[in-house]
Amino acid sequence: MQKSIYEYVGNMHIHSVYSDGELTHAEIAEAAIKAGLDFVIVTDHNVLVEGMEGYYGDRPDRRVLLLVSEEIHDPRRTQRGNHMLVYGAEGEVAAYAPNPQRIIDEAKERGGFCFLAHPIERAAPPFDDYAYSWQNWDIENYTGLELWNYMSEFKSYLTGKLAAVRAAFNPDKYISGPYPEALELWDNLLISGKRTRIIGGADAHGTTYSMGPFKRVVFPYDFLFQCVNTHIVSDEPMTGDFQHDKMLVLRAIREGASYVGYSKPASARGFRFSAQGHQAAAIMGGRIRLGHGVTLQFVTPQVADMRLVKDGKVLAQEVEGTHRTYIASQTGAYRVEVYINYKGKPRGWIFSNPIFVVD
Which end of the chain is more exposed for a tag (fewer CB within 10 A), N or C? Predict the structure, then answer.
């Protein structure tokens, strides 16, 4: 009998008033409820805010699980960048900011894990905004990459004042998907044998921007929570018990039982990617033995351009489909990309974590 699969959607890169965000944790939770999210993880810069975790909301059908983690960087670095998202570490590790490997090791010691935030980023020179890319690649044992950061992509379109106004008032016209360089980086890590997972996030701050007489919160939290999110899947449901549900969310993220979805073109809920072998099965983030072959299946919630990717190359494509089956005859990391037409051009819609086919 096939197990039930439960899906939950959340945002994992958010800032509050405790660093450079504009909302309190309770206000962030309210914005998440308004946007229809199941969980959020607040990641303030270099501070782990205690006492804020829990369920927020006034009734069972209108609540959100709020967790607290951290985005760590070394503010003394001359060369900007090296921002690391640390999840699930039951304790402060920002003291190790000058040494990224020490952050990873200490987080692991405390039961946590790390993702490299916006590892590929582009600057916005007209606004004196730098590219906060990841630079120190002499590290090991990080869990994965933030493949798609909404605000990071948005600022790449700020090539001038007029372009900034156009983008701010019509962001859906510009947002297209993860940077191609980020996808290439991820594929190269997978090819090298690293079982690198991915997440997506908003990088929400709620900042008010001014240009002459005009002032505007360009991206309110509830708007961003309807854009790029991380969808987790689990064979057990959330129960409403805080500790149980916290562990369920963190375990799915750590293991890569998840995918990145862009909800503006259409809801990404309902995507599935699975593998079936001889007396074995796996979902995203999992491993399965090759044996005499593995059947890979992926399903989208509506018609889209679906692509199965391995080693940076498209192995199978369904230009206008909702499901596809592929027989894998080689070991490696298999992942799915899905694109959908929106506002006149194809947009990145869904990016799955890999299934690892092994000897």
Answer: N
